[in-house]
Amino acid sequence: MKTAAIILAAGQGTRMKSGRAKVLHTLGGRPIIRYVIDQALALKADPVIVVVGHQGEQVIEYSEQVYGHRVQFVWQKEQLGTAHAVMQAKKALSGFDGQVIILYGDVPLLGVETTRELVRKVRRTKTPVGFLSSFPPDPSGYGRVVRKNGKIVRIVEHRDASPEELGIGEVNVGTYSIDCKYLFSHLGGLGAGNNQKEYYLTDLVAIAASEGHKVASVEAAAWEMEGINSRVQLAGMEARLQNIINTRHMENGVSIINPATVRIEYDVRIGRDTLIHPFVSLHGETVVGENCIINQGAVITDSVLMNGAQIHPYSVITEAEVGPEAQVGPFGRLRPGAKLLRKAKVGNFTEVKNSILREGVKANHLSYLGDADIGEGTNVGAGTITCNFDGYNKWKTIVGKEVLIGSDCQLIAPCEVPERAVLGAGTSLDKRTSMEPGDLIITRPQSTIIKGFRDKLEKDSARIKAERAAAKAAAEKKAGKKDTARAKKKPQKSDSESVACQ
Ligand code: UD1
Ligand code: CA
């Protein structure tokens, strides 16, 4: 039998206190909605319809970018409740005959197997309505499953529940499997007579029960059923998910010295025998090969590390590629488009952007290499800078293989250095410089030597000091005479004052 899926993602997520739609907040580095759409696709549901409302444009834009036409969207302009949201998919499913899986966009970690079991049970028991229930350690906030003699009679929302109902430990996960025809022929009959004045999808359970149907339920585990309504819940789930991700990598042969301190996002892939030190962050779609070492404090985003690459402490790597056995850091910085081939090395405080460092290149200290192509085996001396930007345009620097670049050179782009050339320390080289392979270039001005300069400097300085001291003494002597004259006058003034005080 066919299945379709409806994902509810129109709500504002008021409890998140955010300007962003709740389903676009990230978990494990990817928007929450992505986990839910992945579930629907893994269940082979067709069509998959996402109900959007709050910031629907952004939700559509993101989902289309990831899933293309595999997902459809319908709008719920006003958010009048979960039943009203499902209603918006009625037209899109007009010709559909089968089960509709309804998933809430804010329940990301639900296992596909659990939902599949629900679909099977609904089919097996020939009931029109089934849903997932669970027994979380803290049921507050969730809808409670009310049973009479073991039979499900209704779901009551936390806000609408009596004190007795609040004591129920079984809750509604928010995942349903409902016969399509039954769904749309009954949704219209639901009221909004509840605390929130919303149309609750959960009320369909009471209707089915009152019609004499045995509503099916399948139990989900506590770890997978949680919905995200607040940032506190999001952080809690983030911690649990990180644990799951770390465990998955360790089980695949990756060593993580202190798992509680690392951040490894959901889509990151890591090869076996790679060693991850504390406080490492691996983001986005980073791919790490086998036998790599990633040292403390490295932050790596959307990058590729080939087998045997080593990242030394506190290096930051973004949209870059580190070749086999290549090394970066400590304090190395690879920006977008940086590509290190086999055994290339980028050392302390060196920044590389949109450049290729071919096999065995070493740029070990304090350099900036931007828009450059550095040939095999070339040594880039400390403090070498490619001056790639003229204020308006960026230009390329091309360096041949086995070049020796001395310390503190400036390669003013566009420029080219032939293979095996030697650049003396402090060389400034630009497009006018034409060298042949193997040439040496020195652009330092000729040194000038003044014999005995220091002695002369000392002598001059002593003479100037003595002259200044003499001038000062003469000035003081002159000033001293004036002071005596003034001192003679002063008592008269103080006399007159003391007279006045009497
Ligand atoms: C809902 C359930 C509750 C269950 C809990 C599980 C109802 C009435 N309650 O409560 O029984 O225990 O989920 O996590 O269904 N949405 C729309 N349009 C709307 C309203 C909501 O698309 O008009 C979407 C939201 O974006 C969200 C989902 O539906 O993705 C659930 O809505 P939410 O307000 O979070 O419901 P809960 O109060 O968590
Ligand atoms: Ca929710």
How does the SSE layout of this entry go?
Elements: E1 3-9, E2 26-27, E3 30-31, H1 32-42, E4 48-52, H2 56-67, E5 72-75, H3 82-87, E6 99-104, H4 112-125, E7 129-134, E8 144-148, E9 151-156, H5 163-166, E10 171-179, H6 180-186, H7 203-210, E11 216-220, H8 231-251, E12 255-256, E13 263-264, E14 269-270, E15 275-276, E16 281-283, E17 287-288, E18 293-294, E19 299-301, E20 304-305, E21 310-311, E22 316-318, E23 321-322, E24 327-328, E25 333-334, E26 339-340, E27 345-348, E28 351-353, E29 356-357, E30 362-365, E31 368-370, E32 372-374, E33 379-380, E34 385-387, E35 397-399, E36 404-405, E37 410-412, E38 415-417, E39 422-423, E40 428-429, E41 440-441, H9 453-501
Parallel strand pairs: 1-4, 1-6, 4-5, 7-11, 12-15, 13-16, 14-17, 15-18, 16-19, 17-20, 18-21, 19-22, 20-23, 21-24, 22-25, 23-26, 24-27, 25-28, 26-29, 27-30, 28-31, 29-32, 30-33, 32-35, 33-36, 34-37, 35-38, 36-39, 37-40, 39-41
Antiparallel strand pairs: 2-3, 6-10, 7-10, 8-9
The structure holds uridine-diphosphate-N-acetylglucosamine and calcium ion.
Q: How would you portray this structure in words?
A:
The chain has 502 residues and is an alpha/beta fold. It folds into two domains: 2-225, Spore Coat Polysaccharide Biosynthesis Protein SpsA, Chain A, CATH 3.90.550.10; 231-441, Hexapeptide repeat proteins (UDP N-Acetylglucosamine Acyltransferase, domain 1, 3 Solenoid). Helix content is 26%, strand content 26%. Strand 4, helix 2 (56-67) and strand 5 form a beta-alpha-beta unit. It is elongated and about 115 Å long. It starts with a strand and ends with a helix. Mean pLDDT is 95; it is low at 493-502. It binds uridine-diphosphate-N-acetylglucosamine and calcium ion. Uridine-diphosphate-N-acetylglucosamine (UD1) binds at residues 8-11, 51, 76, 79-82, 84-85, 104-107, 142-143, 155, 157, 171-174, 200-202, 227, 229.
